[in-house]
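Thread amino acids onto this structure.
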């Protein structure tokens, strides 16, 4: 029996679908079953049924709607992650409240999410299939419920120390799958008087990055908001690249400002592209640029890290043990560009130390 179960798991990714709408349940089930590598083994109309099916069939992946009766998606996810860790892909609407709940779900251990279109129109079949396959490859011990030390009720330091002059140093943080949970740990640990501007490039659809920025801002000593065209780079502030936009550095008229380009202007699967941003900033900031590559699928950041090191900048990566997906940091390591690979809990301290080194080096050059 055990051997046949192993063979079955090798042949098919076994999925439980949690969705209260009969129409959407059928659409999700048909979409997943259309791929020969995936099999929907159970469907559930509410959170309690999801938990029951989880115990009965032990799926490889769960797709979970946020709005379900009796036990909503967030409550269900919390139970799954604390009691029976299983990779979960969230399905959510595009509403503001839905986006905010997605941020919470990602922080609580969901692997990724798919934004549903109203009434099932233009249902993202390929995206759902891709993310279910990705989730199936995530180890269960990397999706456990892991709340950070900061929460919405925590009193945070005053942001009055945020700088106003142009930043001489830049910290560029790139992340993808598993990233929201990690940046919720890293960025709130950075001090308000960090002598560098910070840019966060998180692979995420339009609009959702704004709510990620809002959530980070409520928890962080540094000021955090979504980047806008023409923003200046100042110390003590974090700018989050908008989803669906590539971020570059514009040096027009002697001032360093953010330039945003829509995705269709530059064909690239990852948007915002970490490679493009790093390649744009590296020749300008040279030895005063720190690139931080966090968990994520693919190789975005590998080519950019080569540019950063070429101009004298520094590169650190999240380690394999704490990365939900070691693809992006692993690609940087394979290129020989990573100075250090660190667990999540040590990354903020390392950033602060390297930025301090940048400041000391500049002061030494002036004297």
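Threaded sequence (367 positions):
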């Amino acid at each position: 029996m055990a051997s046949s179960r192993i063979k079955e798991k090798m042949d098919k990714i076994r999925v439980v679908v949690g969705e209260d709408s009969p129409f959407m349940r059928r659409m999700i089930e048909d979409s997943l079953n259309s791929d020969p590598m995936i099999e929907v083994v159970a469907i559930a109309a509410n959170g309690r049924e999801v938990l029951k099916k989880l115990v009965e069939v032990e799926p490889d992946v769960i797709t979970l709607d946020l709005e379900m009766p009796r036990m909503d998606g967030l409550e269900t996810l919390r139970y799954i992650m604390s009691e029976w860790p299983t990779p979960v892909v969230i399905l959510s609407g595009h509403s503001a409240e839905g986006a905010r709940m997605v941020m919470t779900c990602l922080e609580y251990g969901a692997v990724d999410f798919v934004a549903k279109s109203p009434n099932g129109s233009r249902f993202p079949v390929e995206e759902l299939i891709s993310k279910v396959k990705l989730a199936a490859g995530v180890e269960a011990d990397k999706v456990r419920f892991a709340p950070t030390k900061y929460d919405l009720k925590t009193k945070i330091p005053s942001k009055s120390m945020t700088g106003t002059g142009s930043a001489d140093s830049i910290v560029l943080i790139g992340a993808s799958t598993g990233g929201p949970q990690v940046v919720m740990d890293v960025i709130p640990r950075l001090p308000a008087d960090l002598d560098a501007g910070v840019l966060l490039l998180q692979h995420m659809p339009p609009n959702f990055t704004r709510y990620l920025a809002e959530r980070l801002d409520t928890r962080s000593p540094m000021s955090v908001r979504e980047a806008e065209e023409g923003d200046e780079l100042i110390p003590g502030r974090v700018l989050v690249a908008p989803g669906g936009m590539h971020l570059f550095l514009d040096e027009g008229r002697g001032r360093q400002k953010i330039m945003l380009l829509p995705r269709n202007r530059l064909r690239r699967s990852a948007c915002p592209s970490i490679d493009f941003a790093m390649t744009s900033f590296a020749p300008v900031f040279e030895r005063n640029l720190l690139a931080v590559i966090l968990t994520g699928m693919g190789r975005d950041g590998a080519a950019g890290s080569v540019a950063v090191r070429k101009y004298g900048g520094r590169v650190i990566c999240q380690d394999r043990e704490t990365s939900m997906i070691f693809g992006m940091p692993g690609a940087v390591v394979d290129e020989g560009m990573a100075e250090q690979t660190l667990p999540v809990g040590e990354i903020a301290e390392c950033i602060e130390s390297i930025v301090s080194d940048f400041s000391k080096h500049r002061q030494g050059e002036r004297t």
